[in-house]
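TA notes, week 10

Several of you asked for a full example with nothing omitted. So below is the full record: structure tokens for the whole chain, then the designed sequence directly under it. When grading your own attempts, check the secondary structure regions first.
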């Protein structure tokens, strides 16, 4: 794990690849768009496969929680959720939602302000791509998680043509331009030194707008044939 000196060195605003304060006011608009809502539906469906059957009374830490979108999902699932993000504006937006059974705090994932073994499950959904030191953040997540326990990750897939195209077309003021994308193999290799890993790939949404309503069918067929090119990767690390 990180030494206290090393953890203090990386606890600064530059720990993020992108200043999410700039996106706080518009971030949630993606989920209200037709395409964004479909991606959200498919991502939730995939993440649910990695959640425990019983969550009531269990404590979950949501690292890089942003505006609280996934914190709310985890709360509705039954967890007692603590959400942290380095962006104060993101946290302020999350607080305004008044989500039940969730507390939000401004904190750097490289230096989490919690004691060892504080949570039953620690999650980071589309957050790991934007931190400066992925190893440091993962080790902090592991430190804060009880053993046995789980680390749950959701990341943007570097093999997805949709994600690669977004990186090419967006300018520096968009999060996609700053993201460090993982492939399924890269994510598995990154996690395996810490314990058994299970990977799932989803988010197969057709490029043509008129086909978006058929995305669940495309997603199911693509996963059936083991395609690794969906837009979203979910992974669970068993501790």
């Amino acid at each position: 794990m990180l030494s206290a000196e090393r953890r203090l060195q990386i606890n600064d605003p530059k720990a993020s690849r992108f200043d999410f304060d700039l996106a706080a006011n518009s971030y949630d608009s993606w989920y209200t768009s037709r395409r964004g809502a479909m991606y959200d539906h498919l991502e939730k469906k995939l993440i649910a496969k990695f959640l425990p059957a019983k969550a009531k009374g269990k404590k979950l830490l949501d690292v890089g929680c942003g505006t609280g979108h996934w914190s709310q999902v985890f709360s509705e699932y039954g967890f007692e959720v603590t959400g942290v993000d380095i962006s104060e504006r993101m946290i302020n937006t999350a607080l305004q939602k008044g989500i039940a059974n969730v507390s939000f705090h401004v904190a750097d994932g490289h230096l989490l302000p919690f004691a060892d073994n504080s949570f039953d499950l620690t999650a980071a959904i589309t957050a790991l791509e934007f931190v400066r030191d992925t190893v440091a953040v993962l080790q902090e997540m592991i430190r804060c998680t009880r053993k046995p326990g789980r680390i749950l990750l959701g990341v943007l897939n570097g093999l997805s043509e949709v994600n690669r195209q977004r990186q090419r077309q967006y300018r520096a003021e968009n999060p996609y331009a700053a993201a460090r994308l993982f492939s399924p193999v890269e994510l598995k290799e990154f996690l395996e030194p810490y314990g058994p890993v299970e990977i799932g790939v989803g988010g197969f949404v057709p490029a043509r707008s008129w086909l978006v309503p058929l995305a669940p069918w495309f997603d199911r067929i693509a996963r059936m044939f083991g395609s690794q090119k969906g837009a979203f990767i979910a992974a669970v690390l068993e501790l």
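The mean pLDDT is 88. Use that as a sanity check on your answer.
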